[in-house]
Every structure is written in C-alpha cells, then in structure tokens.
Design a protein that fits this description.
Helices cover 46% and strands 5% of the residues. The protein has helices spanning 3-16, 21-33, 39-45, 57-61, 67-80, 97-103, 112-121, 126-141, 151-154, 236-254, 268-271, 275-283, 290-301, 314-319, 329-350, 362-365, 371-380, and strands spanning 160-163, 169-171, 173-175, 188-190, 219-222, 232-235. The two termini are 35 Å apart.
C-alpha cells in the first residue's frame, strides 16, 4: 500500500476505532514511517540499524544476495511488508527444502503471525500500534507474494489483465523505467525487469507485478509462479475495504474496547454508515488517493491532518541524552520495530526455515540477546571481516 492508505486511511480507522485526534495522528504517522525507516534514515539519527523497517532503492542496489544478504532482506520485508501466512504450509508437489522454505513465506491475510503481530502491539503505545496497522494492511495488498527474493515464487508472466468495473478486460503493458509514471488510461504500468537469476532483488515481493497490488481501485488477473502459473483474480477494492474494517477492529482491541483479537473479524458495523464514501475513495481510478482520504478524515474528526513529514521527530531523538532516547517518539518506534522483527524472525527460525537467519527471542532476552541484529549491524559497517 501507499501513503494514502498507510497514513490518511489509517488515521480514519484509528479515529473510528475510538482514538482521539492526537492519538490517531501518532498511530498513522508510525504506520507510514514503516515505509521510510531505512538504514540511511537510522544512520542519520545514529540509531540502531537493526530497527530498519524498509530498504531504499539505492540501498537495494547495493544489497548483497549471498546467504547473509538474503537473510537481511528477508528479515525486513517478511517482518513488515509481506507477513508470512503459514510457516508450516504443506507444499503439495515434489520440491526441495529451499523451495518449501520460500513458499512458506508467501504473504496472505488472517494468518497466525497477524494475530501475534497485533497482540505484540497491545499496551505498547501508538508507535507499536501504527507498525501493526501497516503490516495488517499490507497483508491484503501484498497477498500472494513473498518478502524474499525468488523467481520461482514471485515471478509473473505476460498473462496479466486489468478488469474494469463493467467487466471488460485489457492486457497490462509493463515497462521497466522506474521513473516512468503509470499510465492508467492505456493500462501501462512499471514493473521490475525480468532476470532469470533466482535471488535477484528484481524478484523481491511484488516487483514483477509493479505497483498494481498497492492501488486500491484495481482488479486484475495474473499467473503467479508459485501456483504453477494458475490464474489468480485480485479484487483490490474488496481487499482494501476488508483491510480498513479489520484495522478498525484491531485498533479497538488495542485501545481496550475489544477483549481479544481474532482472525477474519471486521468492524463492519462501525464502517457501515460511511461505506459508500469509503468505497468511492477506494474505487476512484487514481494513482494517489491522499487528498480524498485526508478530506474524509478531517470530516470525521473536524481536525486538520497535516502532511507526513519524515523529519518531524528527528531533533527530539538526536538531542535527547542517551539514557532518554528510548522515551522519545522515534525511540519508542525503534524499540517496537526491533520487537516485531525479532518476533517474526524467531517464528521463521523456529519453523526450521533459515531464510531469515538465526534468532533469539527479543521478548525473552531483550536487546542484548538479538545477536543476529547486532552482528549484522557490525557486518554492514565493515566489521566481522567484511
């Protein structure tokens, strides 16, 4: 998903869930920050690099795809953007362990790890809640793709059709210029360049499908590599509405109005009075719905929703004493991010899957126990024989 949903729509969901304006702003800021908290950003703050929740394009260009590099990539993208659905999924065909491990990282909605993610955020503040909402929303947009580089899992082929609201279909024309703007009128979109190498970053996540998974208005059908190229139809308007209503429900759990977070449960009743307006925003054919979600949120609360500003909390963090950094806004976000990454990595590791590397449970051992994160940070700085 994009800023329109992670920032403005998340604000709307938080407000409808019962949070006040200030609380909703903190939650949606944290949700959007997940897409921007890179090592470049953390280096600027002199903050722990293991708290990275994304990788910038320039960082990805330099990313290594040896086992250590792949584990690093997988820890970030599987933890925050492509939450695995079933780490013990039965692969119903003859396949090697490497394929099975990658297959078991495929993202989908309403998995056990989603319950763990939302539960982890309980009583941990707005930053943890925002991180959880980003992850929850992405399970709907990014379903059927995995947060690890893999041609045999994430590739698609020429069979890709956009389905219009009246049922007519148009073949999608993909180009590979990352600076080119998607052309909705002519169904021309940008995706990653096909490369036959299994572990190239071009095969990470939904790169082969371009930005289509992140657009709320679009419906399409395509053939995923992991499904033996059998057709999948993706209905984003329905999925995005499900995501919105599930966020409201999850946030009601986080604010104490609901006693337990359960799978496949949605706050349909709370969203119902606004459904027509919400669906009009979701189904509007546009590359960016920020203005529409912003207007809807401001109508709900009667308050102004300022644009997202990455530098908003930087000075608070950098000027704080070392012993006080964890109490700043970014300090709390960093701790929540490390806890989430540790939890997911630990679950993947305990399932017998080595793609995210070795893990020690953050909740049990604390920061000093995250040996893989500390070693990785040293490694990327040039230590450990690099």
């Amino acid at each position: 998903m994009q800023e329109d949903f992670h920032y403005y729509a998340t604000y709307c969901a938080a407000y409808l869930a019962g949070f006040n304006h200030k609380e909703s702003m903190d939650i949606c800021y944290s949700a959007q920050l997940v897409d921007l908290c890179s090592r470049t950003f953390l280096s600027k703050l002199r903050a722990p690099l293991s708290a990275a929740t994304t990788q910038l394009q320039l960082e990805m260009m330099d990313a290594r795809t040896d086992p250590i590099g792949l584990q690093d990539i997988t820890r970030i993208w599987a933890s925050f953007h492509f939450l695995p659905y079933d780490l013990y999924a039965d692969v119903k065909k003859k396949a090697g362990k490497q394929y099975k491990n990658k297959y078991r990282l495929i993202c989908n909605t309403n998995g056990d790890l989603l319950v763990d993610t939302v539960a982890l955020a309980k009583d941990k503040g707005a930053q943890a809640a925002g991180i959880a909402m980003h992850i929850l929303a992405d399970t709907w947009a990014h379903r059927y793709f995995a947060g690890t580089p893999s041609l045999v899992i994430n590739n698609t082929n020429y069979y890709f059709y956009e389905i219009m609201p009246d049922g007519t279909e148009f073949p999608v024309a993909f180009g590979h210029n990352p600076s080119a703007k998607d052309d909705l009128e002519n169904h021309k979109y940008t995706n990653s360049l096909y490369q036959s190498t299994e572990n190239t970053i071009m095969n990470l996540g939904h790169g082969r499908a371009g930005h289509l998974p992140d657009y709320s208005f679009i419906r399409y059908r395509y053939l995923p590599a992991w499904g033996d190229y059998k057709e999948i139809i993706k209905d984003n308007p329905s999925d995005f509405y499900h995501a919105f209503c599930q966020m409201i429900y999850a946030l009601r759990y986080l604010n104490g109005d609901v006693s337990e977070f359960e799978k496949d449960t949605y706050a349909w009743d709370i969203a119902e009075p606004y459904k027509d307006e919400i669906m009009a925003i979701i189904e509007k054919r546009q590359l960016n719905a920020c203005d529409d979600w912003k207007s809807f949120g401001e109508k709900l609360s009667g308050e102004e929703i300022p644009p997202f500003e990455l530098s908003k909390y930087e000075s608070e963090y950098t000027s704080a004493e070392k012993t006080e950094k964890n109490e700043t806004f970014l300090g709390k976000f960093i701790l929540a991010a490390m806890a989430q990454k540790s939890m997911v990595t630990n679950k993947i590791f305990k399932s017998g899957n080595s793609l995210a590397g070795f893990s020690i449970d953050f909740a049990e051992k604390g920061f000093a126990g995250i040996k893989d994160y500390k070693l990785l940070a040293e490694y990327l700085k040039g230590g450990l024989g690099a």
